[in-house]
Amino acid sequence: MYQALVIDKDETGYRASIKQLDDDNLPEGDVTVRVDYSTINYKDGLAITGKSPVVRKFPLVAGIDFAGTVESSSHAAWKPGDKVVLNGWGVGETHSGGLAQRARVRGDWLVALPSRLTTRQAMAVGTAGYTAMLCVMALQGHGLTPASGDILVTGANGGVGSVAVALLSKLGFRVIASTGRTHEAEALKALGAAEVIDRAELSAPGKPLAKERWAGVVDSVGSHTLANACAGTKYRGAVAACGLAQGMDFPGSVAPFILRGVTLYGIDSVMAPKALREQAWARLAQDLDLAKLDSLVHEIPLAGAIAAGADILAGKVRGRLVVNVNA
Ligand code: NDP
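^ thats the input. predicted complex w/ NDP below
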């Protein structure tokens, strides 16, 4: 038997609850994992509350990521005792997920835990931090270096944003952190932000082009914020867009692209190819200041995950929520 956060939807409605399941409830897959930690990402909040149709099969165990130890495997790459991380691939959406003490998945979806990280640290990173790394890799792949200019990080107190701030500052970039929680400015500066701006500067409708302020952007917010971030990007700069915390719309103009040669990179973590994931996790183990990562963590037990799902959507979570599924 194992405990899991199960999403049900039937004629009585949509609900999340902690249940005791037996092994018959484990889904199809060639690797069974004893989960140590999972997390609450923004998407988990949407899944737990039912605010967006993230979960598309019922009943389903929530949780888009986990880290743990292989218990049994018929997949050639994995054997019992291996430490593994999983992000995305529809886990927690169409395949039962990581907010549980056990999970069964396809071995092809797993990444080996980098030896420098514990399973707890891997979930302190979580899908949010792994996505932040994909954004940073896109900006570096574009050719941006600290000499290119500042990097804007939006949603800076959130999961993607806070890991992006820590990563970019460790890499030597000057980071401008945009946040609605300016009272957390000192925490953002401790994380590595050189400058903190109020997100209200970016969240209202703006002009097609604005003063060139940053060479690159990590945006987890979307909507007017993304449009204004593009409008303020320097000539031949780059914007990595991964999120929609303000909205899914993109009410911008083509001006930054056709007049300033700005490039907009779309970042998807869910179906990212395995080689890119392995590169991102290796880079996280190498480039992330683990003391700073630890300062972002708030650990909760599995029973706290339901309330936490609503909290993250309400913007009440700072940094990363790590779920100890065995607590
Ligand atoms: P968090 O809730 O931790 O962070 C989101 C942050 O966005 C908040 O902390 C807040 O930052 C800011 N924000 C929230 N609401 C608004 C608003 N109305 N206007 C402007 N800013 C706002 O979520 P995550 O970091 O887990 O995820 C961030 C986004 O990235 C989500 O949309 C998520 O779906 C997406 N995502 C996408 C992935 C992909 O594969 N493309 C993978 C992972 C995440 P502050 O308080 O500093 O203002």
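The domain at 127-266 is CATH 3.40.50.720 (Rossmann fold).
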